[in-house]
Write a structure and sequence with these properties.
heterodimer; A: alpha/beta; Rossmann fold; nine-stranded mixed β-sheet; two-stranded antiparallel sheet; 27% helix; B: alpha/beta; 2 domains; seven-stranded parallel β-sheet; 28% strand; elongated
Amino acid sequence: MKIMVAIKRVVDYAVKVRVKPDKSGVEMKNVKMSMNPFCEIALEEALRIREAGLASEVVAVSMGPAQCVDTLRTGLAMGADRAIHVEWSSAERLYPLNVAKLLKALIDDEKPGLLILGKQAIDDDCNQTGQMVAGLLNWPQGTFASKVVLDKEKQTATVDREVDGGIETLCLDLPAVITTDLRLNQPRYATLPNIMKAKSKPIKKVTPEDLNVQIRSDMEVVEVSEPPKRKAGVILSSVDELIDKLKNEARVI
Amino acid sequence: ISTLVLAEHEGGSINSSSISSVEAAKCLNEDNSISMLLAGSGPSLQQAATHASLCHPLISQVLVADSDKLMHPLAETWANLVELVHKKGGYTHILASSGSFGKNILPRAAALLDVSPVTDVIEISESCQFVRPIYAGNALCKVKYTGESPCMLTIRSPSFPVPASETRSSAAPITQVDLSTFDEVEKSRFVKRSSQETERPDLGNARIVVTGGRGLKSAENFKMIEKLAEKLDAAVGATRAAVDAGFIPNELQVGQTGKIVAPELYMAFGVSGAIQHVAGMRDSKVIVAVNKDADAPIFQVADYGVVGDLFEIIPELLEKLPEKK
């Protein structure tokens, strides 16, 4: 079985983002970019499944401008066997519906038994792509996964999902789509020898035209703004003062 | 304008977050015919339908899909159901609340209908213009939906509170959805659901939330947070650090990847205030922070801060706080 993993290049987790003065977006100049943390978990899970002998190949896919190749190299250094870069450098954004259609076209061609994605990207926080591609493929979905157990004989994946108020367990027929939550695993670091090895692994380039997917957008960003700031609070010196404030000033207890 | 609200129900009543979605639908347009869709099977579904018909004055119709196939809220069956119901009803908008139910189902249904959904709406300025947080709430993005109907949204329920006065005298009509054409190839099966039984209020709707962070140091110490919550009739929350350290189960995590809460009072003990945590509680009305590090970023969002040792402060609070009524 082949596993496909979708990975996104985003502003690094540790960067404090700043809104541009013209409100057109957030400042992207000279900002450190990295693989989306949820996508690292997705790739790690695919690698562990392959290492357990339940899959033969892990294919990493990323979409966007030329720099996505750097992110794919990181994925190859972590252990992916090969990569596909869907080139898209137009100013027009790729929304999750477009990404889902591109992934579907790749899957129709590659025929993996499992597609693993992060549950959301930490830039737009959409949490949509996995569910959408599962819908387009008419595959079952296990979103927000915290545990995945494959049964090779029955061709199923048993997935623990983090839902409001607890854990839900589903059994999915393969092929299936899984989106990863934070507790699924701890992604590995790429070692230096593997980083060197990754340089010779193949990255195939395709365009949306090659895949016969028309990129059309039904969404516009009107403006991006700073969230309202909370007014500065006060530091109190004792528990008595705190109880007094909560009772008589804020009136919440 | 006509809106379909996908509702979640439990124990025979509609979840309050789904009623908030009706409140959000009200913001789309004054003149809005709102239908609420619920699915499931058996008596608890019919009981929930009765509740739905009375839960908000603006609901004009309750649609009930009753089938064993819909006993558990699986995304595959639900998305197909939404497609089926939309084909008949031709809604301009389809809404669900932004919990794990809505986020699991609504994007899948949107893909079937070939439209882009909008996640985590916190403000509705026009019927197709919405504000949603991006970058863990560090920026707000105003988007305009320019595509075909339906426009599909998930709603952050704390941003659309339902006024207590919203009651109605007569029940909305309840219609059963015709499922005769609904044949489903089962590719996904429900196995089980496990949750912590507790008598404390639900984290998503509690009036007061008491949260502990890494500063609690152990699962044993975390019980102090639970005691304090009990005294205040509050829900217990936790940071990702406290969850990762094994002090408390993940379902109580507040933050970008956990629950988003906006209670009247949020009390944070031993919480440093990482942006991912603040993203989940910044809309609380009053924030109290107790931390021994005076430079902890949590104090930048707190209305009242106490710099000190929580192992002294929590016992003192337990002793001095008034008994709950």
